[in-house]
């Protein structure tokens, strides 16, 4: 009890007694029993308050022998009668104005199909970032309430930001599974903490540990669709090896279709819950060449992003997904160029980028359409609730104003000039030779009619998502529009209400926090088409940008740094002095007319309300740091370790659980046996084609390569092949930078410095070379740390192709890391430099 006050104990005990009192007075739901009790075919529903349900009493008879006894089987748990199948779909990084369903020029026929068979929702909101939205989606709680105040790769040691969904917030997968559903998860899983993503576990925070019985997808923020970081359950799989035309977008649909078909044929009476979350359209944008040609032939983007905004805006009014009096927010001339001011080279490149992005969105939607069609082919469409959310946040601005052929470079604050993009990447844009992202001008246009983009929680360009819902026979206002204000936390209570399942008060003996969302099932009835929203208050926060909605009013801060400056170091001392805006959304749909100066009393009321909501949902402490959060130490299996030893082959260790060589000196020693005839292959590698390092033998010659974001490769090589026998190979690197420090996490200026590498063979120096710069923040995140073979992509395609297994014997590989420490004086100086830089940028 040390450190716990008596008042806190009293509060905790009071909460327990209150919970038990509430449990005792809530009436159990009426149970539905089918079949003869005790027979093999007997079924029952449960009241759902306690999960898993306690074992039922034995209802038969037991005597000395079986002939004189009566067997009794426990009834199989099934959902309530009429509970629908649920297909929950969410795409990635799609702005409100991108899909055709909400006025965009990019064809999305599957989303159109759901909207035309059901309802379009025009004021549905995300959190502005991917894994926070996904955590809210599967729990029905706000993202800070479940530890996802930001993505896991940037987690910090505070309850609202540690990226851990605690056991008092059971997911929709767990709730439905224990109530008799078949549950599955396909695609992106960005809710496993980055420091718990290895094959060593634990697996409680993986889909299969959160109530989803089947998982086929990738772990992390994004992945190549050509060579993905792919898992079935918790086992890494590599179906793309030897199949250059394989693409995850199609393969994932194939797997989901096969799974739905299997469920229907094995147990056609059992309803399913399928969480279908493809990687599209998060970067890298990886459609197949056929889809790129289809879109390119349509010439959708030849007139540029400014004209595109006007076209989308007009379409939106025609479709009535925005009011007729809505205003198109102004173009940010202080941040982005007008299309007419661009050079011909810029226009050529940017049109290519948009074509590939649009092809990716259309391709993703097409494969979603195949999954929907599979549901119809099983004969289950008439009792399937389909929720299709277009994007987990607004369109992404993480590609820089010029776009990038390698998003990993952009995350390390390295921008690739237009001329180089045209020369080296134009013809392969969207292939596995790029990790591509589009220019921010397109991003802003795809968020029409709103301001700002992904990451920006204060403005609807970051948070407003198009959504369509269909449920034949239950939603009869086919093709209707719903304008009620809602949020992603409202999906779980909507599904539970549709299935007539109560949220549990206790799971595995742990009292559950309340569901924080509000069911939007009331909007299904045509009579309620214009009923005011039941979701009265909603806060927003991401990286210090804030917003608060209450009964038609909205107050928000202004961003102090554009989201495409991923290496920015905002001054943490100004977080409480951001400028606030105020909007009356009943008259101003798009946050176009700021009323803060005209109505300071209302603004103060809303600011005070934000403080109340933020305290309630674990939003404090506010933190506006960005890339610097990615280098904060976390409780991974490598935390505090400086020496690592491996023997033989080990592949697939994710970045969050692997030793990091960033901003450090290090020594890698490989003790090997070379057989008669020589050896080659991987000794160790981390990362891949778009950023990483590799230690390997090529034609018997030891090589160490640093791939600096696919823009430059620095190579150390022994000039001669190794003779048969035992050898000791050593690569030693001395880093010139200052390293990390407590305060320096708010300033990355000390990162990415150079150093000198030395390759030794059997004690003899064979190559020495200096690197002027090193990768400052992160390697290619969808790749892994591998020993004895390579997965994913090679660090140098000219040297080898995966898996390139080592053909000798790797007796031992040791990595020793010497991470420099900052003195207090160094930290103070770096902080002062960062503050001066902030003032200049502001």
CATH level 3 topology of the largest domain:
Alkaline Phosphatase, subunit A
CATH superfamily of the largest domain: Alkaline Phosphatase, subunit A
The Cα radius of gyration reads: 28 Å
Largest sheet: 11 strands, mixed
Give the overall shape, derived from the CA principal axes. globular
Tally of extended strands? 33
Broad CATH class of the largest domain: Alpha Beta
Low-pLDDT segments: 1-28, 741-748, 837-842
- Number of discrete helical segments: 15
Percent of residues in helices comes to 10-25%
* Helix-strand category: alpha+beta
Number of domains: 3
Distance between the termini: 47 Å
Name of the CATH architecture of the largest domain: 3-Layer(aba) Sandwich
Which band does the percent of strand residues land in? 15-25%
Kindly state the mean pLDDT as a whole number? 92
Domain Sulfatase N-terminal: 84-501
Pfam families: Sulfatase
Biased composition (Basic and acidic residues): 820-831
Signal peptide: 1-30
Characterization of this structure:
Keywords: Calcium, Hydrolase, Metal-binding, Signal. GO terms for molecular function: hydrolase activity; metal ion binding. Residues 1-30 form the signal peptide. 23% of the residues lie in helices and 21% in strands. With 842 residues, it is of the alpha+beta class. The protein folds into 3 domains: 20-77, no CATH class; 86-318 and 330-479, Alkaline Phosphatase, subunit A (3-Layer(aba) Sandwich), CATH 3.40.720; 636-825, Jelly Rolls, CATH 2.60.120. Strands 5, 6, 7, 8, 9, 10, 11, 12, 13, 14 and 15 form an 11-stranded mixed beta sheet that branches. Strands 22-33-24-29-30-31 form a 6-stranded antiparallel beta sheet, with no helix packed on it. A 6-stranded antiparallel beta sheet has the order 23-32-25-26-27-28, with no helix packed on it.
């Amino acid at each position: 009890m040390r450190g716990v006050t008596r008042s806190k104990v009293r509060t905790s005990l009071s909460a327990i007694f209150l919970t038990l009192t509430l449990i005792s007075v809530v009436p159990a739901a009426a149970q539905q029993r089918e079949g003869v009790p005790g027979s093999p075919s007997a079924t029952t529903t449960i009241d759902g308050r306690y999960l898993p349900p306690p074992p039922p009493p034995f209802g038969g008879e037991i005597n000395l022998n079986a002939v004189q006894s009566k067997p009794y089987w426990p009834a199989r748990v099934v959902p309530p009668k009429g509970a629908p199948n649920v297909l929950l779909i969410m795409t990635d990084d799609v702005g409100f104005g991108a899909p055709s369903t909400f006025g965009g020029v990019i064809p999305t026929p599957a989303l159109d199909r759901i909207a035309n068979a059901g309802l379009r929702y025009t004021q549905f909101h995300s959190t502005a970032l991917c894994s926070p939205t996904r955590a809210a989606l599967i729990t029905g709680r706000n993202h800070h309430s479940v530890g996802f105040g930001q993505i896991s790769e940037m987690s910090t040691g505070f309850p609202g930001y540690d990226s851990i969904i605690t056991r008092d917030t059971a997911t929709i997968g767990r709730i439905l599974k224990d109530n008799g559903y078949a549950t599955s998860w396909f695609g992106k899983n960005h809710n496993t903490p980055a420091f718990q993503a290895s094959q060593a576990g634990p697996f409680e925070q993986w889909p299969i540990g959160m109530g989803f019985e089947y998982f086929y997808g990738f772990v992390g923020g994004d992945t190549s669709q050509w060579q993905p970081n792919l898992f079935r359950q918790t086992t890494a799989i590599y179906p793309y090896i030897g199949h250059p035309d394989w693409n995850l977008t199609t393969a994932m649909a194939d797997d989901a279709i096969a799974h739905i078909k299997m469920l229907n044929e094995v147990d056609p009476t059992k309803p399913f819950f399928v969480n279908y979350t493809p990687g599209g359209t998060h970067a890298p944008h990886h459609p197949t060449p056929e889809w790129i040609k289809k879109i390119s032939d349509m010439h959708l983007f030849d007139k540029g992003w400014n004209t595109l905004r006007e076209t989308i805006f007009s379409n939106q009014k025609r479709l009535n997904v925005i009011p007729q009096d809505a205003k198109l927010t102004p173009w940010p001339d202080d941040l982005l160029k007008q299309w007419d001011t661009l050079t011909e080279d810029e226009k050529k490149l940017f049109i290519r980028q948009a074509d590939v992005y649009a092809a990716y969105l259309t391709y993703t939607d097409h494969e979603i359409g195949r999954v929907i069609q599979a549901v119809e082919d099983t004969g289950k469409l008439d009792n399937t609730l389909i929720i299709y959310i277009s994007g987990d946040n607004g369109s992404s601005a993480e590609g820089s104003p010029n776009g990038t052929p390698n998003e990993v470079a952009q995350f390390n604050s390295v921008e690739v000039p237009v001329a180089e993009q045209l020369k080296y990447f134009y013809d392969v844009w969207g292939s596995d030779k790029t990790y591509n992202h589009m220019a921010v001008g397109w991003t802003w246009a795809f968020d029409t009619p709103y301001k700002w983009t992904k990451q920006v929680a204060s403005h609807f360009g970051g948070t407003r998502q198009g959504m369509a819902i269909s449920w034949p026979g239950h939603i009869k206002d086919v093709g209707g529009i719903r304008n009620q204000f809602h949020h992603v936390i409202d999906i779980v209570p909507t599904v539970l209400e549709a299935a007539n399942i109560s949220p549990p008060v206790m799971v595995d003996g742990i009292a559950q926090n309340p569901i924080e969302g509000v069911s939007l099932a009331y909007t299904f009835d045509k009579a309620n088409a214009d009923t005011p929203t039941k979701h009265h208050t909603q806060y927003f926060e991401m990286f210090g940008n804030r917003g608060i909605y209450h009964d038609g009013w909205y107050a928000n801060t202004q961003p102090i740094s554009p989201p495409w400056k991923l290496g920015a170091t905002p001054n943490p001392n100004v977080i409480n002095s951001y400028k606030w805006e105020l909007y009356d959304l009943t008259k101003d749909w798009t946050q176009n007319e700021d009323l803060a100066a005209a109505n300071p009393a209302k603004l103060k009321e809303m600011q005070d309300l934000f403080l109340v909501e933020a305290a309630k949902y674990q939003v404090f402490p506010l933190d506006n740091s960005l890339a610097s959060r990615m280098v904060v130490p976390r409780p991974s299996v490598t935390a505090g370790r400086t020496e690592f030893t491996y023997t033989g082959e080990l592949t697939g260790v994710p970045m969050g659980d692997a030793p990091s060589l960033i901003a450090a000196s290090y020594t890698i020693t490989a003790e090997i046996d070379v057989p008669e005839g020589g050896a080659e292959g991987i000794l160790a590698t981390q990362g891949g084609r778009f950023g990483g390092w590799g230690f390997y033998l090529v034609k018997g010659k030891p090589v160490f390569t640093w791939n600096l974001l696919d823009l430059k490769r620095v190579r150390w090589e022994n000039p001669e092949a190794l003779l048969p026998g035992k050898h000791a190979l050593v690569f030693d690197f001395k880093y010139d930078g200052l390293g990390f420090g407590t305060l320096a996490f708010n300033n990355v200026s000390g990162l990415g410095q150079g150093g000198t590498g030395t390759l030794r063979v059997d004690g003899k120096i064979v190559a020495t070379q200096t690197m002027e710069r090193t990768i400052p923040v992160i390697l290619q995140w969808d790749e892994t740390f591998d020993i004895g073979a390579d997965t994913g992509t090679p660090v140098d395609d000219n040297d080898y192709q995966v898996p390139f297994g080592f053909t000798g014997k790797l007796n031992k590989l040791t990595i020793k890391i010497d991470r420099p420490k900052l003195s207090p004086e160094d930290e103070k100086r770096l902080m002062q430099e960062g503050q001066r830089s902030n003032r200049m940028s502001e």
